[in-house]
Design brief:
alpha+beta; Immunoglobulin-like; two-stranded parallel ribbon
C-alpha cells in the first residue's frame, strides 16, 4: 500500500498495480457531508474541474498510479466543538458515518475504514472516535453496529445493476440497493443534506419504493443511534430524513 500527499503526486511513481492491492486515500471532508460538492474552482491535471474535498477529487488523484479503485483507509468526523467549523454534533457524526460507507459502496470503492475507534487527547482534533475517551458509545457506534449486523453474511455482498425505483427526486433522496450472498435484499435511503453552516434539519421526504416485495422491514435511527424497526406491507410511503433508513425487502 502506497500513500502520497499532494506534494508527491501519484503519477511520479507510475503504475503500481503489480505491487499493490489498491491505492489508498484519506477522504476527510472538513465537516462537510459525504456527498459534498466541495469548494474552490477545482484542481489541475486529472483533477481539472473537480472541486476540492469531493470523493471524486481524491479518487482521481489516486488512480494515476493504479487502474484499481482506491480504498478509503481513513475518513471521519470530529465532535469536539473547539475544532471549529470542521466539528459536527454526535448525531451528525452518526448520519455522516453511515452515509459515507453507503456512498462509497455506490461508487464501487471496495473498502472503507473509519478513523477512529476512540477519542484521545484534548486538542480539538482527537474527537473522531466512535466511542469517547472513556469508551462510552457515541451514536455513530450504535448505528454502525446495527448497519453491520443487518448487512453481514458469510458471502460477499453485491450491488445489483438494477437499482430501486423510488418516487422522489434523486437529487433530494439517495438510494442504494444491496444484495447479500444469502439472497437478502436491502435498500438504503437518505437525504444528502449538508449540515455545514446549517442549524435546522430538513423536513422528511415521503418515498414509495416500487418493488415486488410483499413486506418491508424498515430500520431507522434515533438521535442517540438507537435503532427501531417497523414492518408494513408494500405500497405505503417511507419518511426519509438526512439520516439513513434501511429497508429490507421481504418477498
Amino acid at each position: 500500500m502506497a500513500i502520497f500527499d499532494m506534494s508527491q503526486p501519484y503519477q511520479k511513481v507510475g503504475n503500481l498495480d503489480p505491487y499493490i492491492d489498491a491505492p489508498s486515500i484519506h477522504a476527510y471532508k472538513e465537516g462537510r457531508c459525504p456527498e459534498t460538492t466541495g469548494w474552490g474552482a477545482g484542481g489541475t491535471g486529472v483533477q481539472q474541474g473537480i472541486r476540492y474535498a469531493t470523493t471524486d477529487f481524491v479518487c482521481a488523484d489516486a488512480r494515476q498510479c493504479s487502474t484499481e479503485m482506491p480504498w478509503v483507509t481513513e475518513f471521519g468526523y470530529g465532535t469536539d466543538a473547539s475544532a471549529g467549523a470542521s466539528a459536527v454534533t454526535p448525531e451528525v457524526q452518526m448520519k455522516y458515518t453511515l452515509r459515507t460507507f453507503l456512498d462509497n459502496i455506490s461508487r464501487g470503492i471496495p473498502r472503507t475504514y473509519v478513523y477512529q475507534f476512540a477519542d484521545q487527547g484534548t486538542d480539538g482534533y482527537q474527537s473522531y472516535g466512535l466511542v469517547d475517551a472513556s469508551a462510552n458509545p457515541k451514536p455513530a457506534y450504535r448505528a454502525l453496529a446495527t448497519l453491520i449486523g443487518l448487512l453481514s453474511c458469510n458471502t460477499q455482498m453485491s450491488v445489483p445493476s438494477m437499482q430501486p425505483i423510488i418516487t422522489a427526486d434523486p437529487s433530494l433522496v439517495r438510494s442504494l440497493s444491496i444484495k447479500l450472498g444469502d439472497g437478502a435484499t436491502f435498500v438504503a435511503l437518505w437525504q444528502p443534506y449538508e449540515w455545514f453552516g446549517q442549524t435546522v434539519a430538513p423536513p422528511p421526504i415521503n418515498v414509495t419504493l416500487l418493488s415486488k416485495a410483499y413486506y418491508y422491514a424498515i430500520t431507522q435511527f434515533a438521535a442517540d443511534g438507537t435503532p427501531s424497526t417497523t414492518w408494513f406491507s408494500g405500497g405505503g410511503s417511507i419518511p426519509v430524513t438526512d439520516g439513513v433508513t434501511i429497508v429490507e425487502l421481504i418477498p
